[in-house]
Prior knowledge:
The complex is a heterodimer.
Chain A: H1 5-11, H2 13-31, H3 39-64, H4 72-88, H5 93-117, H6 122-144, E1 149-151, H7 155-161, E2 164-165, E3 168-169, H8 170-188, H9 190-200, H10 202-207, H11 212-238, E4 240-242, H12 249-259, H13 272-291, H14 297-316
Antiparallel strand pairs in A: 1-4, 2-3
Helix pairs in contact in A: 1-2, 2-13, 3-8, 3-11, 3-12, 3-13, 4-5, 4-6, 4-11, 5-6, 5-11, 7-11, 8-9, 9-11, 12-13, 12-14, 13-14
Chain B: H1 23-43, H2 50-75, H3 84-100, H4 105-130, H5 134-152, H6 163-169, E1 171-172, E2 175-176, H7 179-192, H8 197-207, H9 209-214, H10 219-244, H11 254-266, H12 281-297, H13 304-328
Antiparallel strand pairs in B: 1-2
Helix pairs in contact in B: 1-12, 2-7, 2-10, 2-11, 2-12, 3-4, 3-5, 3-10, 4-5, 4-10, 6-10, 8-10, 11-12, 11-13, 12-13
Amino acid sequence: MAHRPARDLLTGPVASITLALVVVITVGLFSVGPRFLSASNISIIGQFLAIPILVGTCAGFALLAGVVDLSIGSMVGVSAAIFGTLLINGWDVLPAAAATLVVCLAFGGLNAIAIVGFGADAIAATLGMLTALRGITYVVVEHWGVSGSLMAFHPGLFTFMNLSLWSLPLIFILVLLVAAVATLVVIKTRIGRHLKAAGGDERAASRAGISVPRVRTTALLISAFGAGLAGIIFVGQIGAVSRLTGFGLEFQVYAALMIGGYSILRGGVGNPAGGALGFLVIAGATNILDLNAINPYYVNIVIGLLLLAAVWLDRLRGGDSYE
Amino acid sequence: MADIDTSSTSSPGRLSLSNFGVWGTILPLASAWLVLIAVTGAVRSDFLAHQTVLAVAFTMAVVGTLAVGQALVAISGSMVDLSQPTSLILSALVAVRLLELEFAVTLAVAIAVLSGAAWGFLNALIIVYGKINPVIVTLATNFIGLAALFLVFQIAESPINSSFRAFGLGSTLGIPNIWWPMVALIAVVGFFLPRTRYGRRAIAVGGSRFAAQARGISLPKTRFAIFTAAGAAAGLAGVLFACSSGPFTPSGGVVYLLPVIAAVILAGVTLSGGRGNLWILLLSVGFLSTVPTSLVFLGLSSDWQAIIQGLILVVAVAIDGYEARRGTR
């Protein structure tokens, strides 16, 4: 392909999402004013974005390896329910968190056994896991909760979640750090190259001596771990778990990841930085509508249109054309 | 029963369940259903009663009708229609609003079904002209559609004391009225799909779109036909939903999406297309719809149904994957 800088600027993988973010910030500054970029407003966005970006960064590993993990939303729910229950029963934070993460990794392991071990279709298998984990969340919340919600407020954890650094929420900065490290891993390391190879062309990867099953198993475990950690953060931030905690989060996360340059239909494309930018664009647009007191349902219309535009741009720059 | 199979993975020589063709799907499914009924009946003899039939058939109606649309999309190689929650509620809302304007019931129902078809046509427009994968298109249009519905209404209900409502809550031959249109739809579509030119084109496109193109089948036309038909099925489901349920909200259709996809997969319709028999939907939908009632009789809260249904799905697709892998070796 000929080198066309103007076109690359508009259609390159991270360029288009960066451009979208610039547009959102510009629109925000014009319609809301300088307070759009004020520390307090960004703190609100950051506090809200910590969980989706963490879940998305980790689920992105599965996408890169060519296996879609639909169970992440329910995994957040089941993790929050288990962690909350352990806190209620007098466990300390660290052992409770460790036990919760072990359980989530076990569920991720089940995903891997079905998909990698038996060769089940990833979407169908994790759809089953999504349903089962939601059911476990129902049962746990009903058993240990009161009228459909589980109160598990932990003062120490709540204080930690609300710590600030450079007038931004510490948890948001930590999650961005995770995304930054993940980006380096994907772009710069051998692990990242193996991931992309396994997701991009399974046969070529095997021939090159990469163990595709091991890569995919690891990716599914990372995805489960991220969602499990997000459930623990949820309990810290909110102090309560409902039957529907994390419900539908998978659709929001994958919409943002695709806007940020991932593909759910072919592995090996996208990186965590692009994904995080996708979340920032959606959150920025949401925030503009909120601050202008516009009906929040317009947000989902914006997400839908952004998603179509992102995938259409991806096709223009040589992505999958569906015919 | 006619087995439709254009997928290349099934070779006649290997020893596995798929050697039994369509029976390889039917037998395990039917046995699982019978075991479930037998176990529940053994623990609680009052399970084997007319009430249970009513409850199961009632649950089956909307799920089964949606499953026809979802199966058409899957068989033709477009994987899933994630926008069914929107088309279901769109059609239900259209039916309710028209009845409130005192339209004749048949006219209101017809327009409601057409609104579902129009939604499917819209999806096809974006898929065909944007050349974007249906999974992504329907994910996006479901975001947009549900948001638009929330902007239009908060809660709606079919007019109380109307003949429409009376139909939805009544029964014929001891089975709920809304069950019969579902069965008729599955029977008719299941019969014509492998036996007509249009049906076979859809299956051929799902099996291999390149081979289908080489045979002169138009992909855009097939996509328009499939998504419009699937939308109409979702529209019919919306009508059944509106006449049989109480007040509903714009998000009332969301709960159906995953069970419907699960039913389609359990019925042996591969998401990658080219294979599937719609009649088996009656078994998979019936089986999945019996689970909640059984659990209640076994003394487990209905919350357990999601766990059981999810595990059934994981095990089923794992077995399916294992069989397919052995076949390709």
